[in-house]
Amino acid sequence: MSEIKLGDKVRDIHTGFVGTAMARTEFINGCVQYNVIPKADKINKMPEEMSIDESCLEIIKPLRKEIKKGNNGGPMRKAFRQRGY
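RESULT FIELD:
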């Protein structure tokens, strides 16, 4: 099995469906599926996503740019102010 990362361009080996891996779902029985969203068409209509088993996917183009996992927003509010104390 290949190590698919979110953001990789993937293809279903059975149907030929091509898109970007946007979400990963792991079920309690061990089945792993990826939500794959195809590229938008010329009128920018939101395409339907498909959930495809990991074993049926192959990587076409890996994501080159790493997504920063850090401070993505402004400062956090203090907890006592959120609760109204």
